[in-house]
Every structure is written in structure tokens, then in C-alpha cells.
Amino acid sequence: LLFQILGAVILGFGIWILADKTSFIAVLQMSSPSLKTGAYILIGVGALTMLMGFLGCLGAVNEIRCLLGLYFTCLMVILITQVAAGLVIYFQKETLKEELSRIVGSLIENYDPSNDDERNLQDAWDYVQTQISCCGWAGAKDWESNKILINKSMTEYPCSCSNSSKDFQVDTGFCNLDVPVNGTATYADWPVHEQGCMDSVEKWLKDNLGVILGVCTGVAVIELLGMILSISLCKNIHSEDYTKVPKS
Q1: 139-192 per-position pLDDT tens digit
Q2: Coil/strand/helix, residue 218
Q3: Tens digit of pLDDT for each residue in 6-55?
Q4: Which residues pair with 162 in a beta bridge?
Q5: Of 39, 127, 190, 246, whose CB count within 10 A is highest?
Q6: What is the DSSP string of 104-144?
Q7: What does the alpha-carbon distance between residue 4 and residue 10 come to, in Å, rounded to a whole number?
Q8: The CATH number of the domain covering residues in 63-238
Q9: Model's pTM, two decimal places?
């Protein structure tokens, strides 16, 4: 039952990644095929874990060695895969960081409130900037690469970046700058948050690193216990000795 619950949690997490439309995960999921692939992998692993939990219970109750062996093998494969994925993420973190910068940079550069085709992606990024109180990836200067703002001489700024109370109810699109300097402006003239979202995301990860590691360790311990128990049960199941059966 414990492994079926674990499988349901992993399955639910994968579905959440695909269904979420209002967070930083949504920005990555809609921009990067690799995250979407990862979500499908999580769904597959979750479904497999639930199935293995059922087969493990069935094998233990009915003392079926092949089911217990299959259960042990699948758990070992899942555990090895999780460890490998963790190592890849750790050693490729700089590459992942560059990929995130590229994704968000492209999104900011091509941000257009009138583009309905990219509305979900743009709304997700606006939501991130509003909720985290940040602007751009490295900082507000990133928005100086936006094509629409360049054409308007930077006399507008992204409303979701605003730190002004008058823009409190506006969290998408562009807002007009009250006092443009000689008809032009820079990001330094905008009433926006100075901190970039990269720093905020990194801070969130550092603040929640203990929880993330604790959950990952807990899952690994549960899987190891399952492997140990399945091997113990398998060894304690004695095959019938047909040599002792009386001959007719």
C-alpha cells in the first residue's frame, strides 16, 4: 500500500507539471521539450510504481517468487534511474542555468500582449514576476531587448514588474511611464523591481533545499526497504521438493 501511495504521488507530480499554467514550471514546460518529456517519465514511473506495489503485495500474500523477483528488479531500476537523474542535474547545473536564461531571454525579447498564440506562456511569466516580485531573469535590464518596448523608446514597461501601487491591479501587458525623459527612457526610469527572477528562484531553491533533499531521501529509503523486504520474503519461500512425493 505504501508503494502504491508513493506511485500515486509521483504520478500526480508529473500530471501537475503538464497541467500547471500559472507558475515558473509552466514557463519551462511550455518552452522546453525536455521538461515535458520529464513529466511524461514521472507519470510512467508513478504508474509503474503503483503496479509494482500491487504485484509485490500479490507476490507476498501468495508467496510467488517470480512476482517478488520482478518487484525487486523494478524497484532497483527505478532507484538507479533516480540516482542517475540526480547526478546529471547536479553536474549539469550550469548547463541547465544557461538553458533557463536562454528560454526566459527569448520569451522576454518576443513578449507581445497582442499575440494570442503565446498568451498562456506570457501569462505564466507575468504571474511569476508578480508573485516573486522580480523583473526579468537577471534584472529589469533584460526587458530592454523587447522589440515592442524598443519601438516605443522604453516609455512603457511590463506591468507585472511594477512596484507601484497604482499598477497593483494590472499584472499583464505594458504600462505607460508617467514622465518620459525627453521622449525616451531606460529601465532605470521604470517603477519596477530591481531584483531579477533568477536570484529569486535560486533563493527559493536554497530555502527549500532541505525539504527537497528530505523528500528524495525518504523516497530512496522506502524503495531500499521494499527491495530488502522483497529479497527476504523471496528467500523464505521454500519451493516444493517433488522428489519426496510418493511414486504411484
Answers
A1: 999 999 999 999 988 889 999 998 876 655 667 889 888 765 566 788 888 989
A2: helix
A3: 666 777 766 776 676 656 666 666 656 666 676 777 777 777 777 777 77
A4: 192
A5: 190
A6: HHHHHHT--TT-GGGHHHHHHHHHHHHHHT--SSSBGGGGG
A7: 10
A8: 1.10.1450.10
A9: 0.64
Strand partners, 192: 162
Grid cell listed for 229:
523486504
Question: Which H or E run contains 214?
Answer: helix 209-236
Domain ranges of the chain: 63-238
Residue where the block lists cell 529601465: 187
Phi-psi region of 102 (alpha: psi -120 to 50; beta: other; left: phi over 0): alpha
Do residues 230 and 58 make contact, with C-beta atoms less than 8 angstroms apart?
Answer: no
Compute how many other C-beta atoms are within 10 angstroms of the C-beta atom of residue 213: 11
Grid cell at residue 127: 504571474
Give the cell for residue 26: 509552466
